[in-house]
Design a protein that fits this description.
2 strands; two-stranded antiparallel sheet; alpha+beta; 21% strand; 3 helices
C-alpha cells in the first residue's frame, strides 16, 4: 500500500489547493483483505501535466515496487 498512498500524496494531494482528504479503508471478508485508497486530489491527468513540466527526468518506481511486494506476498502464501 505504501507506494499507492505515497503517489496519492505526492501527485494528487500535494498539488491541490482545497482541503485534502485521504481515506484508507480495510475490509476483511471470507478471509480476504480488501484495501481501498481514495483521495480528493487533482486527478491523474492534471498530475501528469504538472509532472511533465516539473519532473522531466523523473522515473517512477512505484509500480515496480508494488509488483515486487505482491509477488513476495504470493510466495509466502
Amino acid at each position: 500500500m505504501q507506494p499507492i498512498v505515497e503517489n496519492a500524496i505526492w501527485h494528487g494531494i500535494s498539488h491541490s489547493e482545497k482541503k485534502c482528504l485521504l481515506l484508507i479503508d480495510f475490509k476483511l471478508k471470507d478471509n480476504k483483505l480488501t484495501v481501498t485508497i481514495e483521495d480528493n486530489g487533482i486527478g491523474r491527468a492534471k498530475a501528469a501535466e504538472i509532472n511533465k513540466k516539473t519532473r522531466q527526468n523523473h522515473i517512477s518506481h512505484s509500480t515496480d515496487i508494488l509488483e515486487t511486494r505482491l509477488s513476495l506476498c504470493e510466495k509466502i502464501n
